[in-house]
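#help-structures
NK: newbie question, is this the right format to request a structure? protein is Molybdopterin synthase sulfur carrier subunit
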Amino acid sequence: MINVLFFARLREELKTASETLDYAPEIATVGAVVALLRLRGGVWQDVFGDGQTVLAAVNQEMCDMDAPVSDGDEVAFFPPVTGG
């Protein structure tokens, strides 16, 4: 299983804070997880679609979309944060 977490605006737009996905070799990278979520269409396509900036972390370590994902990992998604 992969534990997927959504933070801030993503949590609000997707109306969920977390979910679990069954691990499969086809979703062995963060980018593949994003592609799977995007396939749901609707708001999922809006949040994870082309031109949208979403940051990711695997097991609480910032990463890019090529980062590997293994069974039992936690993958978190959140919008970019600006300070002031």
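mod (FA): yep, format's fine, and the tokens are attached above. The longest strand covers residues 2-6.
NK: thank you!
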